[in-house]
């Protein structure tokens, strides 16, 4: 049995972007209910050399939209990454979900061999085929940042669990 490149990408991105949206809603309600400055959570990090929650969400979005677009052979949308509030982050997630929902399976399936070039023209340039790009780079990077965002919130007392992380599937 085989699995399509589309089935391994867009639905997974959608599932975890939706779960991240729900977790951010719980975080905002938690901060409001406990009279915690929202910025305290939005700028929280697990360790000083790690990125803050806001940036973790933005990077997760970058991987979801970037991987989906590259696999479909379409232009990757550019977002400003100026979000500073829970509503702005949630709007970013909604915009990204709408973008990836506009990509059809036929645009991605069959592109396992498509060459994806990362950081073109730089010393860090890397070339991967579509399947390797998704499975060895895009999905792991995306899930790392979603997981880190979840862990920042859980570490800071937001009452979320595995079911929240997994979302609807």
Q: Mind explaining what this structure looks like?
A:
This protein has helices at residues 10-33, 38-42, 53-72, 86-101, 105-108, 130-155, 162-166; strands at 115-118, 126-129. With 169 residues, it is mainly alpha-helical. The chain has one domain: Up-down Bundle (Four Helix Bundle (Hemerythrin (Met), subunit A)). A two-stranded antiparallel sheet has the order 1-2.
Please, how many domains? 1
> Share of helix among residues?
55-70%
CA-based gyration radius? 16 Å
**Overall spatial form:** globular
Q: What is the CATH T-level topology?
A: Four Helix Bundle (Hemerythrin (Met), subunit A)
Please state how the strands of the largest beta sheet are arranged side by side. Answer: 1-2
CATH class, please? Mainly Alpha
SSE pattern:
HHHHHEEHH
What distance separates the N and C termini? 21 Å
- The CATH superfamily bears the name dinb family like domain
User: Residue ranges: pLDDT <50 for 5 or more in a row?
Assistant: none
Q: What value does the average pLDDT take?
A: 97
Number of helices: 7
Specify the structural class. Answer: mainly alpha
Topology:
Blueprint: H1 10-33, H2 38-42, H3 53-72, H4 86-101, H5 105-108, E1 115-118, E2 126-129, H6 130-155, H7 162-166
Antiparallel strand pairs: 1-2
Helix pairs in contact: 1-3, 1-4, 1-6, 3-4, 3-6
